[in-house]
Amino acid sequence: MTSRVAIRRLPVAAPMSDFLRLNWKYLLGAALLHVLFAGVFALTMISMSRNAPPPVLAIQAVMVDPSILNAAGSVKRDQARKEAAERERLAEQQRQKEEQDRKQEQKQQQEQQAQREAEQRAEQERQVEQKQRQEQEQKRVQEEQQLRERQEAERKRAADVQRQQQAEAERQRVAEIERKQQEEAQKRKAAEDARLQSARENDLQKQLADEEGRSQAENAGLLNQYIAQIQQRVVRNWNRPPSARTGLECQVKVTQTPSGVVLTVQVTTCNGDAAVQQSIEAAVLRSSPLPPPPDPRLFERNLVFVFKPAD
After folding, report:
1. Closest C-alpha among 37, 125, 20, 119 to residue 73
2. pTM confidence score
3. Whole-number Å distance between alpha carbons of 44 and 64
4. How many Cβ atoms sit within 10 Å of the Cβ of residue 287?
5. In the β-sheet with 302-307, what is the strand arrangement from edge to edge?
6. Interval 223-245: pLDDT, tens
7. Cα gap 3→78, rounded to integer Å
8. Would you say residue 71 lies in a domain?
9. How many domains does the structure of the chain reveal?
């Protein structure tokens, strides 16, 4: 009975490397079988060449044992059947793998579809919940805004009342301060007027006393004595220039401190030239401080005397 083996061709797209990796055992067996056949054939030929009679004809036929050829064919047929069975097994594995991948892909697609639908439902629920939260938040913000507006209005009213009260209290305080200041100012003015009146009276009395004392001192000749002392000191400190002539007479104005220190000196009228006037001014400055008056009441800040040296 002839055995039929279904042979399924491998996909053309399968690379040669996969074929060699899957069938290397069979290919190695076929190669060894061919080597065996070649060895047997070579030994047969050597044996025949040793036992054969010398050749008579130009052409000699070679005899091959049919059993050897039948054995080689059987081995090839077995190898072919094994290769076909292996290809069928591999094809079946490939088909099962493709079917498993297809089912896995369908399952993944179904899971992804279910996940997308669940995400859509969750997104819809999230949007609805977010909308509700936004509406609640908007309502809360409006209520808080209204509350703040009422509180702000109440605060402004209270602040206005407080400002009015403070303004009234400040007005009364300022009025009281102004009244007290006016009273104190009137008191100070009255006291100052009384002090000034008393000072004026005292100054007047002192002035009268000074004038009377000055008049008494002048009548006693103390003023002339004071002027003579100043004139004598200035003459002693005068360096007579060559241009000074006899009968020199000049009027000198001096500004001094109470201690007699000369501040300024000026020759107003003089019958001498400029060199003489400068020499007189230098003599007055060298005479500083000037001698004090015998009576303090005779002191003059702005003093005028006549410079008239002896010839």
Report:
1. 37
2. 0.34
3. 9
4. 22
5. 262-270, 250-256, 302-307
6. 889 999 999 999 999 999 998 88
7. 12
8. no
9. 1
